[in-house]
Amino acid sequence: MSQKMFEPGITAGRLEASAYADQFSDLHPPLDPHEALVAADRCYFCHDAPCITACPTDIDIPLFIRQIATGTPDAAAKTILSQNIMGGMCARVCPTEQLCEQACVREAAEGKPVKIGELQRFATDHLQQQGKHPFERATPTGKRVAVVGAGPAGLSCAHRLAMMGHEVVVHDARPKPGGLNEYGIATYKTTNGFAQAEVDWLMQIGGITLQTGSALGADITLEGLKADYDAVFLGMGLGGVNALGADGEDKTGVLDAVDFIADLRQAGDVAQVPIGRDVVVIGGGMTAIDAAVQAKLLGALNVTLVYRRGRDRMNASVFEQDLAASKGVRIVNHAVPVAVHGNGAVREIEFEYVDADMKGTGQMLRLAADQVFKAIGQTLQGDALPALEGRKIKVDGTGRTSVDGIWAGGDCASGGDDLTVTAVAEGRDAAMDIHMTLVG
Amino acid sequence: MADLRSEFVGIKSPNPFWLASAPPTDKEYNVRRAFEAGWGGVVWKTLGIDPPVVNVNGPRYGAIYGADRRLLGLNNIELITDRPLALNLQEIKSVKRDYPDRAMVVSLMVPCEEEPWKFILPLVEETGADGVELNFGCPHGMSERGMGAAVGQVPEYIEMVTRWVKASTRMPVIVKLTPNIADIRKPAEAAQRGGADAVSLINTINSITSVDLDLFAPEPTIDGKGAHGGYCGPAVKPIALNMVAEIARDPGLSQIPISGIGGVTTWRDAAEFMALGAGNVQVCTAAMTYGFKIVEEMISGLSEYMDGKGMTSVDQLVRKAVPNVTDWNQLNLNYIAKAKINEDLCISCGRCFAACEDTSHQAIAMSEDRTFSVIDEECVACNLCVNVCPVENCITMEAMTPGTTDPRTGKVVEADYANWTTHPNNPAATAAE
Question: What is the pTM of this model?
Fold first, then answer.
């Protein structure tokens, strides 16, 4: 037991030095070959399988599982990657319990779906760890496409375009490619630098130039890209963070959850990342869960996740909610922040309980807080963008925006859930439409 | 609990579950463990004339698997016992002395001459064994030397040897038959003519279980080469059941007792063999897969089943299904059934649809929301949907009531029995009487 465990305030090293590696190890350790065969044997090879329908990228799941079962995991990987070039990351971060595994007929039959996500990881890891890239670039077309954002949508789009023979330049504001895969996902979901390894592997297709530190609006402009390239794909995600709207929210210690998650991912040694003894996370999505769980893993004594609605309305899946609970995160529902208390730095945060219609009840809750992480949604940033729908770039089914020659996908575009797998699908589909437009 | 005591050709055992002549019954140590576990009897692994045979020193078994690496079929290239005759005889005597209530049958295979049989039979008798089983079935190795299946494939030899054996011993004689023939009734008839007290079947089936695709050699592979072996286990049960039934329903053979062998794995398999005419069963692969303890499930399962059927002795089960085994041309062509899918049980995997749509009669409809239903206008009741459905009893075959109209043919379902022999499409039809 570390001496710093009960220490108030924000400090690093709350745990014994030896504990961190275990805390931040793979949430789901990879299946070994035996486990994979046992898991694969459970697939019924359904007709027009519901799991495929549930997958935003339409991976032929029964086929790839049958390929694993028959001892050809690399063929399985190609089945996966031909639909979803980031199948390796999606295998790690997809909320499978809400997608393919929820649809699995064995979920209906026995409440125990085939382990589709873990099998997908088994296959893609098998291929990628050999450094094999199973796709070849078509004859160069001479067409050039600019992609803004090296996240799942942008990279998926870039890879598909490159495969079709186009020349692609990917711009990203951050120093590293990967987008949320690199900066926005809990450490225990993608260990051992997988996000970068996946980007490196993806780039093997050739024909893609990566320009990091190149931000739209600062280093490049949409006008300029449109003039210089045959087509533009926008996949820069959501750069802004919503405000709490509570008094005192500018106090020290009130932080954006996405920054906390990104800093943790980029930390060379997680033991050096300071964390409060009492941490409050506000929000009900995956980001809130990722922040709350990791605060706990860093040794925060009391972590409370507060969400304004009931658990059934949380965007985080039941699996994620249970994960948080199992790590010791307390989940409080039906409460909204009204004031952040403290002299310069946050000491307490005050909530009011609300009813189902979000009306205040007059009942208050005060929680001790050294740190408050805001995870109440992100917003699109940027000027001179194509027309919006709500707060996102309006796109049609193939990713076309209101401006000719500009496509968009991923979190910055309208429609779809803000999931990695959705972004990959949108990037891929936009690439196909760009291709048809350029050479069709 | 039902009385499972069994008497087979005068040999008594506390239950009808014997271990077949095979590796599990090769030594005193194994057989004592088997009897402690509760097996009713054993057929001691086949004895021969010294010097003992030698076995290969590489893999003796190959296998095929179902899901989750369930062993479905096993093939072996092992020979008869490779231990000295005297040692086996001494052990048989020792075990029989300590377990007098268990059946102790000794399997034998000696060259196809009368002298060796005359030599070995008194030695077996002297052990106190209850009977002998003549191994005319082993399909590999021994058959190359003119024994085993090489005898079992020639009815005249079966008859000749059986007669020699009967003339040289007071013990009951069971003749074990090879399935590697065209018509199982011919060797069974030969055994009967030779005076056999019973037949046991099936021995193993000639087989190659798999091919090593790197070595390009059959499995099991011995230094780059493979030889066919004998196939057994759950996969052979249907073949064995048919052969047992063929003998049991043959008027000329219906009196000869049968010891059923071939893929018996559970009490239910045993009950099926017995219903088709086996007086008892012999088990090998299941024991080799799961160990001797499985006999406990066989005992409890058969007891529970018999209690449920009001049967008080195993004899009441034996041959119970034989009258219902018939030829195809005796099947009632006026019997009309339709598949029915229980939507509450259905898990919407769609395998019935794929099977019917791709490979059969396009008689299953699939809705937008993955509800599957049978199109009676197309359904010929082939049963494929039932067979491929992963959920037991989700799809059933429901007989149509006479007087109703089959929507597929537009004809009224007739109550009367009518088979192919009288069907107008049969060029050889005889007029219905």
Answer: 0.91
